[in-house]
Amino acid sequence: MPRVDARRRLLLAAAAAAGASPLLSTSARAQAWPSRTIRVVCPFPPGGLTDLYSRAIAEHLQAGLGQSVLVENRPGAGGLIGNDAVAKAAPDGHTLLVTIQTTMVQAQVLYRKLPYNPESDFTWISALGAGHLPFAAPASLPVRNFREWVDHAKTNRASLGTYAAGSYPHMVAGQLNKLYGTKIEAVHYKGEAPMWIDLAGGQIQGAIGSVAAVLPHVQKGSVRVLAVPTGARSPKLPEVPTFVEQGFAEPVFALRGWIGLFGPAKLPRDIVERVARLTIEAGNGARLKQVFETFGIAERPTTPEEFLRLYRTEGQQWIAIARELGITLD
Predict the structure, then answer these.
(1) For 37-76, how does the pLDDT look when each residue is reduced to its tens digit (9 = 90+)?
(2) Percent of the chain whose predicted confidence (pLDDT) is above 70
(3) Can you list the residues of the chain whose pLDDT is less than 70?
(4) Are the C-beta atoms of residues 53 and 257 closer than 8 Å to each other?
(5) Cα separation values, 248 from 23, 24, 144, 316, Å
(6) Torsion angle, CA of 163/164/167/172, rounded to 10 degrees?
(7) For a tag site, which of 44, 155, 223, 267 has the least CB within 10 Å?
(8) pLDDT of amino acid 7
(9) Distance between CA atoms of 327 and 109, rounded to whole angstroms?
(10) Domain 36-130+257-325: CATH superfamily, name plus number
């Protein structure tokens, strides 16, 4: 009998060392998380809203989990490189992703072959608001509203600055060209700062980006905001009418965007719920509240279930619009 007991103890010890102990439940394994530094991948350069969200979430996760959480900026290919790295990471909760809607929704149409499948290669954890994306023109351009800008573009050269190929402003340029026969050129920038500088200097005739990035140029008097999307005015620009108020009723002018928090596919449910809960808590923290105030964002972080509902409703509208406009990037 002692030999049997000794052999049983030896087998259990070996199984435990291999991480396969029958006595170690899924819940127990989740409770052991995190066991090392967590990496939050941001597939865009530092300084933008996606990066700010990444750092605020990382800070709150670190405080709530008692483990180091580092942000890794991996820009390139319009966000696809960073996304793909997370899609291929182990689903153990030590690699997360904060990325823009374009890379998960419109990208399904923009690229003939993505290196990842947005639906099956990721766990959808929480959506955060992207805020209003104002449309602005150089103050030197002789237009006072969006209708006048479109009329100007019908008879003059016009280019529209965007913060990424396939992004919302790229789709707006495509929609205007389809509706009015204009030949607006979408000019894609790596980051908003150089885009707004070029707009202020008149190198481009229009641009769409964040409220926070455009406001300093508005305050200097070098840029004029002509419209904002969604069905409501921006609290940071209450005097600026929406596209819809100015008679542009096509769906692209009313939809709202988001920035999402993801993990690799098959992330354990315990970890998903814990990360989502901490992210929602972060929405009430000082750092994210400051971001919301700066960018004029009313939406707060969602639950995983709310995130998936958002994707299955508004996300499908984005896909339909991208398909209708025929914008492709490869």
Answers:
(1) 999 999 988 888 899 999 999 999 999 999 999 999 999 8
(2) 91
(3) 1-31
(4) no
(5) 62, 59, 16, 21
(6) 60
(7) 155
(8) 46
(9) 8
(10) Bordetella uptake gene, domain 1 (3.40.190.150)
pLDDT of the residue at 31: 58
CB 243 within 8 A of CB 232: no
Reading the block at residue 123, the tokens are: 């766990």
Q: What is the pLDDT of residue 13?
A: 44
Three-class secondary structure assignment of the chain: CHHHHHHHHHHHHHHHHCCCCCCCCHHHHHHCCCCCCEEEEECCCCCCHHHHHHHHHHHHHHHHHCCCEEEEECCCHHHHHHHHHHHCCCCCCCEEEEEEHHHCCCHHHHCCCCCCCCCCCEEEEEEEECCCCCEEEECCCCCCCHHHHHHHHHHCCCEEEECCCCCHHHHHHHHHHHHHCCCCEEEECCCHHHHHHHHHCCCCCEEECCHHHHHHHHHHCCEEEEEECCCCCCCCCCCCCECHHHCCCCHHHCCCCEEEEEEECCCCHHHHHHHHHHHHHHCCCHHHHHHHHHHCCCCCCCCHHHHHHHHHHHHHHHHHHHHHHCCCCC
User: Regarding the domain delimited by 135-253, which CATH topology (the fold level of the hierarchy) does it fall under?
Assistant: D-Maltodextrin-Binding Protein; domain 2 (3.40.190)
- Pairing relationship of beta strands 159-162 and 206-208 according to DSSP bridges: parallel
Domain ranges of the chain: 36-130+257-325, 135-253
Angle between helices 211-220 and 192-200 (to 10 degrees): 30
pTM, to two decimals? 0.82
